[in-house]
Amino acid sequence: MRPVVRGDSPQAVDFVNYRDAFGELAARIGMFCSYCERRIATQLAVEHIQPKNGPHGRPDLERRWENFLLGCVNCNSTKGAKDVVLANLLLPDRDNTAAAYEYTMDGKVKLAAALTATQSTLATNTLTLVGLDKRLNQVLDSNGQLVAVDRVAQRMEVWLIAQDSKDDLQANPTDTFRRQIARTATGHGFFSIWMTVFQNDPTVRKLLTKEFAGTATDCFDPTTTQIITPRPANGLPDGSKL
């Protein structure tokens, strides 16, 4: 899960309507779901980390910049109005979620082997919250229409594209082609898959962290071959748990 930097609020007060924050969020962290990493051209929405309504709702945070990420229909609907206790989760805006999960060519998202027992619990809580470990997730959109998107199959598809790009790079090992690969990656999303496929090419990995807007580059060492944990403090509540 790509760690992101949302930055300070573009205004001194809360938004009048939380939807008004979409443009600034998209510009800062890209048109990607903050959880599943898919590039979403339509129906990407301002996502409330802590729900704005329901039995666990925080209406005081409905228009608060620090409570916003971007979410797709599937992740948003799976997360719903569940109770979100920040201390019990690993979140991409405040933890080094790049160190929490491993992505495999069969489309699965698994817990990273190096996690402690406590970190594994937190990482599992996040997977369950947004349903990233589900093969098929059927949800109702805002119009009551059934939406079924197999995120596993999408991850597999992008893995193959990344692998083809890696093979092509071997035949054309130039910096220009590496930059093109990074730009191609942003068109497909799934940052963590590209970082995994190119785990032995620090140049491409550095380009990926640059091309994917809002990536928390301080979560990686200068060559991006090592993931830095815990994440440097960023002033957010319950941050730097990983």
Gyration radius, in Å: 17 Å
Q: Which sequence of strands runs across the widest sheet?
A: 1-2
The average pLDDT is 93
Structural class by SSE content: alpha+beta
How much helix, percentage-wise, in residues?
Answer: 25-40%
Annotation field: number of helices: 7
Q: Which stretches are low in confidence, meaning pLDDT under 50 for 5 or more residues running?
A: none
Indicate the proportion of strand residues.
Answer: 5-15%
Shape: globular
Biggest β-sheet description: 2 strands, antiparallel
Span from first to last CA? 12 Å
Q: Secondary-structure element order, as H and E?
A: HEEHEEHEEHHHH
Number of strands: 6
Structural domain tally: 1
Explain this structure.
- With 242 residues, the protein is an alpha+beta fold.
- The protein is built from 7 helices and 6 strands; from the N terminus they run αββαββαββαααα.
- It has helices spanning 22-29, 73-79, 117-130, 151-171, 175-188, 191-197, 202-211, and strands spanning 45-48, 68-71, 101-103, 109-111, 137-140, 146-149.
- The chain has a two-stranded antiparallel sheet with strand order 1-2.
- It is globular.
- The chain has one domain (18-219).
- Helix 5 packs across helix 7.
